Input
Amino acid sequence: MSGQGFARWAWAEDIMGTTVSIHVITRAGSPRAGSEAARACFAHLREIDRVFSTYRSESDVSRLRGGAPLDELDPRVRDVADACDAWEIASRGRFTAYAGHSFDPSGYVKGWAVEAAARQHLAPLIATPGVVAAGINAGGDMQLFTSDASDWRWSVGIADPHRPGTIVATLEVVDGAVATSGTAERGTHIIDPRTGAAATSVASATVVADSLTAADVWATVAVVAGADDLSWIADASTRTGIVISASGAVRRWTGATEIEVGMVDAGRAHLTSMPLSSRAA
Output
């Protein structure tokens, strides 16, 4: 996230069980920008964590799981439950908030919360003189914005899940979201709701979409579907994505079309830089 003629300002806090960092890019020589927006983003995410954390006994989600009526809880819990139900239908059962037989919206909430905070507090910065881009990174899941008047590109590296510290591909994003899921970072933690078994065939799945909410859900779907099944991309409206299997096989798509790639070999995947944008730069 750098470039000649630009300055980067960054802030970071640990929230929602991960490190959240905020980055604002300005033209060299422009005043520092983004401090208030960063504080507002962090406060927004802490509030969402207060309501939705499954690790806090006093959270609204924990109270719901303990038998409290939905009508007595924060109204956002119902909104999230409805959204999770809609995603379960859209994913044809590959995503659910009920994989453990109790309500756990964690697979939805982080992406949704980070996107909402970014759109409310960071996106308006793009109109500030001297600011060319702003973005948020929550444990590798990103929502990114760039000014129409700038040629800035966000360069996002995709880690090799089989060789820590190495990169298998680089994505260049103007505006959009990037989300990654899989077993490489957190081990086996995703359950296939159709079978109740752990999803283990995908080491890493990275999805690029307009929205981090969508990218995060579809990355989970990619892990659940498995490395041999890309049928879901026809319904997903993602921009592109890469799935790396537990054996090192690589599958990549653009839109709803799969692109021939190959294997991860000696720390190198046969991938090229992919410029991605929802608009002309």
